[in-house]
Amino acid sequence: MTRMTLVYGGSPNDREKAIASVAPNTGASVIMEGLPDGTGVLEALAATSQLQLQRIAPGCPCCHGNLTVRVTLNRMLRQAPQTIYLGIADASHLPAIREFLQEDQYQQRLSLGTEIDCSQ
Prior knowledge:
Helix content is 36%, strand content 24%. The chain has 120 residues and is an alpha/beta fold. The longest helix is centred in the middle third of the chain and has 12 residues, at 66-77.
């Protein structure tokens, strides 16, 4: 079972730094909404470890970005990472994201872990 950690709020760089500080060197994958404010720290981490990083276009991940998130997530799950970090900009979408992550297709594959709030 893959643990899913939601990382939200703050700037893109805040979310990247938060993930980089807790992501293990092996067995982790990251889906980041949006682009970093310059050189992303996750690119450097991915280059020197087994971290898998996928960026998706900014936008509502539970509405018009839903298909992109699902496709990216399903591709990652095929590789059976220990943890997936999902970095999203807007915490107002968390209830809808949690809901789709608990759908039947994900219940046997994902467990929701602790969340990281970067807005503080």
